[in-house]
């Protein structure tokens, strides 16, 4: 009997170990899942008519801030066409959750819900957390923080019933004047872009979210916004292979589930006049699928953008994208027309039946991987608390702390004395900033100064005279526009004031704006103490106060080259 009990006990321990190991086993990736036959995918595919198979490839636009009539019109499209998914744009999280639950009831096959969430839900939705922009993340040296952010973004998405983040942006932003990528990129160093992008999407995918690296083969060196016209990428094949495509190759090797194609004319890859890359079979099938061996979801950039419909109107773009190799046709101008035209193209043998089947099954496999084979609607209970938790806000602060970059200075010039008479100046604003409010707690003998971006010369002179009376001056240069552009919209006189302050020995300047703006502030390179913080967030302003008090050691490195004084990788550790 004792022997029998021992053997039972041993078996029980083995069983517990098996349960424990499997509980923590990593979920099979979407790409890995494509290697095995999926009975649910096969079953659904065989039940669909050709029309409804085509419809699975189409994702249409949805909003929760455009009123009931708009919401109802999307519902009608879902019911009538049985499309594959939705891409949600502006609105609110609660409204979106409720609308998704309603829309899913209209779909015979659950919808794949996608969003652009490069910095999380806050990119599109009010009342949600915005994580730092990708350029800010590009300064961080600890990529495990970015992986952690990816996992949290995935949790946020899934909490509101979304399955697919059309992110990260893996463009190498080597054009400071890029009007559409810019701060959305991790920077101009292809290795840094690849590592940061992989950390971000691996975090999301490990937590069960589909992702798409964008905008293949690389939108970082353009000066035209493809929302309004067709950009030209005039570089050689060798240059594109070695630079623009590098992060995408690395992402594919690391198991990215999706790749989004840009609307760009690239003569070195396809000589067809005015042909966007989204419509090019040599680029999508020839390079991405055949040469780079990408097996995941190939997603179009929005097919309503002028960069594609300018030269291929009336649904022609949708058909050409389908033939070129697209798996997901995002935001067609008219999805019903697109289905009819693609159906006609199939009848004429535009692509093989096998290629068509593979496209549809990839979309269905994505739905299965996201759990839509056992669909459960998202709960509205405690939603606001769940997506605005202290843990999420603390993560934003951790990321911000890790991004602060010292470009000039040392411990003696950056760390300030809290007991000295201190002026705290915020430039570009008309009301007190988080920098001022936070610094005032630590510098009791202080006065706050606000300098509007168009303050008259006489006002600037008066402020400069007053600042001469202070033993130390803390200056914040703030970008108040919604998105941090490459040039500040300050008057030339205000910029001259910044140059004057930079020349003063008792002054610490922090730039809460796009790093590229430093190039448009002549004289700032003479600062004894200069920090760049990439965006005008309250968290980064709090981070700077920690640096000034000596409670945070800044570790950020500049992710882009600003000018000859401040190249990529600049950053002083204190």
Describe the structure.
- The chain is α/β, with parallel strands linked by helices.
- The protein has helices spanning 2-23, 30-33, 39-47, 50-55, 67-81, 93-106, 134-138, 143-159, 190-206, 237-244, 246-253, 281-291, 306-309, 316-324, 335-347, 353-369, 383-386, 390-403, 411-414, 434-442, 457-467, 492-502, 538-549; strands at 58-62, 85-88, 112-115, 164-165, 210-211, 213-216, 258-261, 297-300, 329-330, 405-408, 422-427, 446-451, 472-478, 507-512, 529-532.
- The protein has a six-stranded parallel sheet. Strands 10-15-14-13-11-12 form a six-stranded mixed sheet, with helices on both faces.
- It is elongated.
- The termini are far apart.
Supply database-style keywords.
single chain, 574 residues, alpha/beta, six-stranded parallel β-sheet, six-stranded mixed β-sheet, 23 helices, 15 strands, 11% strand, disordered N terminus
- CA radius of gyration is 26 Å
Largest sheet: 6 strands, parallel
Strand content: 5-15%
Gross morphology is elongated
**Regions with little confidence, pLDDT below 50 for 5+ residues:** 1-25
Strand order of the largest sheet: 5-4-3-2-1-9
Structural class: alpha/beta
Helix content: 40-55%
Tally the helices: what do you get? Answer: 23
Write a concise synopsis of the structure shown.
Helices cover 43% and strands 11% of the residues.
Blueprint (SSEs and pairs):
Elements: H1 2-23, H2 30-33, H3 39-47, H4 50-55, E1 58-62, H5 67-81, E2 85-88, H6 93-106, E3 112-115, H7 134-138, H8 143-159, E4 164-165, H9 190-206, E5 210-211, E6 213-216, H10 237-244, H11 246-253, E7 258-261, H12 281-291, E8 297-300, H13 306-309, H14 316-324, E9 329-330, H15 335-347, H16 353-369, H17 383-386, H18 390-403, E10 405-408, H19 411-414, E11 422-427, H20 434-442, E12 446-451, H21 457-467, E13 472-478, H22 492-502, E14 507-512, E15 529-532, H23 538-549
Parallel strand pairs: 1-2, 1-9, 2-3, 3-4, 4-5, 6-7, 7-8, 11-12, 11-13, 13-14, 14-15
Antiparallel strand pairs: 10-15
Helix pairs in contact: 3-16, 5-6, 8-9, 8-18, 9-11, 14-15, 18-23, 20-23, 21-22
